[in-house]
Amino acid sequence: MFDDTSPASASLVPPLDLSTLLGAIPELVWTAQPDGRVDYVNVRYCRLLQASFEQIQDSGWRQFVHPEDLERTLARRQHSFETGEPYETEYRLRDGQTGTYCWFLARALPVRDTAGQITHWFGISTDIEKQKRREEALRQSQERTHALMASNIIGIIVAEGEEILDANDTFLRMTGYSREDLLQRKMNWVDMTSPEDLDRTRQAHLELARYQSMKPYEKEYVCKDGSYLPVLVGGAILPHDPAQSIYFVLDNSARKELEQRKENFLSMASHELKTPLTTVKMCIQLAKTRLVKQGHHEVAAVLSMTEGSVKLLERLVKELLDGSKIQAGKLEYVQEPVDLEALLSEVAEYVQQVSATHTIVARGTAPCTLIGDKGRLEQVFANLICNAITYSPSATTIEIDRRVSSETVTVSVRDHGVGIPQELHEKIFERFYRISDLSQRAVPGLGMGLYIVAEIVRHHGGMIQVESEVGKGSTFHVTLPLKRLTSGVTFSSEVERERKR
Ligand code: ADP
């Protein structure tokens, strides 16, 4: 083993003071005979290898070189010793203490006498392990970037302002543009965005510039052939040049197509279910009337029981149908003066008739007329009151409060039931969302009611809010503008007739 007091310095070629200096520097210093035999190493060299000078001298150093680097290193040395050219190579040396290999850059120059003959080689090996690690990390990072750019799933573009500066093959393939088009600067995201998505896209770019990040969003690109491609886009600012941003684009067409098929199915299924259900309902009523006339009261009572199930089915099918229409932007509204006071009384009276478990208490008055769709507004309040009853099985009252100001009217439906956790106050208005709490699992429903309610309220220029605490009940507040003419509303006696049917 290496011993600090070993005679490494005893065989010094340089004078003692130079040797002391060479021992102090962090580099490995060595000298060699013209034929390459090592005849001096500094103390740092011995310390690193944990070896004595005797173990290193001549060709002893070779045993400390990484086996994969030895052949190349020897060849390089041999070449220099034969030609007298300066020697430079990188190799790994084994650290005697840890047993690990570290990278060194070895450089050597020949020392010549006055006749030009080489008398010695003077060499220095510098620790480049950190640099090598940085290079390796950089190489790996570049490899990852290349793999990402070459991905055939994600389209990638780099944009500055409105111009697309760079794009990977996947993006070009998705949009039908060629690399030529890109090089000729023919690609511009404004021209390539469908007009409906332009505002959303500009907003996303502003968001990115302001917050350095953006929420992924859906849009449609206009391809070179004019066709539209639904995509999901996410982006990031490039740190080295904040004027430039990189965007990741996922082809969304398969998902969109599936969604469309699902929508078509829901719309078709609800339509197909509606007609036989109406027939069943009519037949039950007819049979019931006849049975009562013929004095078969017991059988008529049994038949009455099926009416409840048919009504539930009817409600679910209607919700499905309305949900599909909302999704397709085809839910139609009529516009008419609505006496809200009368509407609320009618709804409360109707629900009270079918619910014996709860008393509906109306407070305040709302002597106002607003412009809207009476049937749809009835649907809103009937749904909120029915929910209030359904989700407060242990309570006995439902309260309806009304407040009118000069501009708006607010109707609040309060129950003393199970309540809704704070974090779900927004979620319950999403389509198909139902709270999967054990206590609510047995309650029939599709998670469509509040989605439809919110859509109708929004269409009337109003808003709906919920206040609720688990175990203490919920209050839904619906605020509607008074005498507001809703835009884009159809006056359709056809629709009206169809709905009343
Ligand atoms: P559903 O027809 O399935 O009840 P909704 O859209 O009407 O669907 O309601 C969505 C969810 O919100 C319900 O599943 C229920 O968990 C919750 N919810 C709605 N109203 C109330 C209420 N008054 N109290 C407690 N939870 C409610």
TrEMBL record:
Instruction: List the keywords (alphabetical).
Output: Kinase, Phosphoprotein, Transferase, Two-component regulatory system
Q: Where is the PAC domain?
A: 87-140
Read off the Gene3D superfamilies from this record: 1.10.287.130, Histidine kinase-like ATPase, C-terminal domain, PAS domain
Residue span, PAS domain: 18-84, 134-213
Task: Please name the Pfam families in this protein's record.
Answer: HATPase_c, HisKA, PAS_3
Q: Which reaction does it catalyse?
A: ATP + protein L-histidine = ADP + protein N-phospho-L-histidine
E.C. code:
2.7.13.3
Q: Which superkingdom, per the lineage? A: Bacteria
Enzyme type, top EC level: transferase
Where the record annotates domain Histidine kinase, the positions are 268-484
Q: What is this protein called?
A: histidine kinase
The species this protein was found in: Ktedonobacter robiniae
